[in-house]
Specification:
2 copies of one chain form a homodimer. Chain A is of the alpha+beta class and 111 residues long. The first copy, chain A, is built from 5 helices and 4 strands, in the order βααβαββαα. Chain A binds a DNA duplex (30 and 30 nucleotides) through α3.
DNA sequence: CTTCAGGTACGATGCAAGTCGTACTTGAAG
DNA sequence: CTTCAAGTACGACTTGCATCGTACCTGAAG
């Protein structure tokens, strides 16, 4: 039941290069954008993101996000929980999560 | 003399994915970190960064930074000028440049 | 003019990364 | 027990990208 938390780097050990590499991928960035937009920071299932990729690839992407220190993964055996490490990210890279809400370039509204 | 400015995306068209991809490379990030640290935003020569890579590769990296909209490249024919697009970056992605100063993870000095 | 340094263009190469197929594990439900 | 869905491990494939070698262009200085 309890579920064990798969390991990731400590807050002070977050590497900016790893973070940028993690956010460079469109699928991973969409996950992070969704997580950042939910201020309740509740735990989510990893199939709640509607990613148009196979589950093996999803496993890969969530692992990259975890190893970059951006999310926690809680292993329940036959399912998995995802939680944003908001406090750690804001402590080390303040303002980063806010950038994810900047939206697509040249939004449809020209002004 | 005047030197023509090689093209890049407009401020409103800056793409977050292209920016993260550009900053994912260590050499490009070091260039941006140096530029962001110089508040005078003066034009710099492109061999003033001491990059440990060949000049062909430097050409490639500066092109990536320019196409991501992070820098302007001014072509003088047989030399080139580099200038940070600070205002445009701050307008579209406020706080991004400040993140570059976050430094290496958990510096070896615990203090 | 020639020479030379800074920079670019094109191609080749090597490596990292995204993707998926197959097979296996885990835990819950019948 | 068996069945099933969620997830992982491993490997193969493919694409992207950083790097450099060779050749060429540009402008300034002799």
């Amino acid at each position: 039941m309890a579920g064990r938390n798969l390991g990731g780097p400590k807050a002070d050990a977050l590497d900016l290069g790893a973070v940028f590499r993690a956010l460079a991928d469109e699928h991973r960035r969409s996950v992070m954008t969704e997580l950042a937009a939910d201020r309740s920071d509740s735990e989510r299932g990893c199939n709640s993101f509607d990613l148009p990729i196979s589950k093996q690839t999803q496993t890969h992407h969530f692992r990259v996000l975890r190893e970059a220190g951006l999310i926690d993964e809680i292993d329940y055996g036959n399912r998995k929980g995802i939680r944003l490490r908001r406090a750690d990210i804001e402590k080390r890279f303040p303002g980063l999560l806010a950038l994810l809400g900047a939206g697509p370039p040249a939004d449809t509204a020209p002004r």
